[in-house]
Amino acid sequence: MRLAPARGSVPASLESRPTDLYGLTRPELLALVASWGFSTDHAARLWRDLYLGFARSLADLPEIPARVRARLAAEVRIGELPLRLETASGDGFTRKFLLGLADGRTIETVLMRFTGRATACVSSQAGCAMGCVFCATGQMGFGRHLGAGEIVAQVVHAARALPGGRESRRLRNVVFMGMGEPLHNYDAVMRAVDVLRDPSGLALASERITLSTVGVVPGIRRMADEARPVHLAVSLHSADQAERAALVPAARRWPLDELIDACRHYCASLGRRIFFEWALIDGRNDTPAHARAVGRLVRGLPAHVNLIPLNPTAGYPGAPSRGDAARRFQRILADDYGLPSTVRQRRGIDIAAGCGQLATPAGAAVSCSAPAGPGS
Ligand code: SAH
Ligand code: SF4
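Above: the input record for the complex with S-adenosyl-L-homocysteine. Below: its predicted structure, written as tokens.
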């Protein structure tokens, strides 16, 4: 598989001119403002304006002195992503935002609400290079990586959209389960995570940020070695190399045995549990034999399995599991292998906000339903 060159390694400050404030960590913002000869108090105020006040424009910063604002206007911008379309599910729990990027592409972000808490599902790329057959984003192909600022901007948009969003901190969870493969855009994603976790800004707890990967082995090993403070979910879908490669072409590059080795390394070096995702496809990977195969494969790992009944997409003929196949699968995992699992709640299906469901020719989007386990 050919991968587009990663752009995330370029420092956010060089990615675009003027610099997108959402792409800077707090220490970087303080250093930038200090390099102009101004007090870092102004930078600290600006940080709060961005992430607690949700300021939309540099003109919207009354407490920043005019001379500082003038320099800001010359050097930086607030990388707001304009809302092109918003849809809401009939049950009122899920909202989907189609957001515009500066180059005319679009991405989607999903906001899911449960009692008293909210989860933002963000995109890490416009499109995806991994080509999973059942995923509409994979079916549409790769557009480009998102910059860290474009990822953070999605979270700010979702947080602001919550009732009483200003200063409310009601957005509790972020999942990298929207459009794209986050470990294919490692540097930008991790920079965004640093911004999201900053205690004087959005202050998201590390155990409430979940990154989902198709199984990019070098990225998983790097996360382990760098002790990145986010939960990891690995999209497994099959416990057999040939079967998996037919669903997830990336498995040819990173075979199942190497993937499970990387997962073991991750759990052992960080002392953390790991999540596996399994899209349940009728007759294809939902039989008792499949359940036993996954039980054997991940034996000994501190794992939790998230079962996602397949969401339909235009380019894939498979159907979601029928009847009580999901419960039967769960029972085998639990009774025979002591493996906990959750059947993911299906939310937002009426607005096509289910995992892997959407794509438009102009570069819109995939989104996801409620995560089980961390971040939910
Ligand atoms: N690229 C990452 C994260 C985005 S996809 C990854 O693949 O993990 C988020 C989740 O949705 C993944 O577990 C993915 O396998 C799943 N998914 C994709 N298409 C789906 C579909 N049609 N039905 C159910 N789950 C799907
Ligand atoms: Fe990309 Fe994930 Fe979709 Fe696979 S499931 S094509 S990795 S977004």
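Notes for the reader.
The mean pLDDT is 89.
Residues 134-135, 177, 181, 212-214, 235, 277, 279, 308, 310-311, 313, 355-356, 368 surround S-adenosyl-L-homocysteine (ligand 1) (CB under 6 Å).
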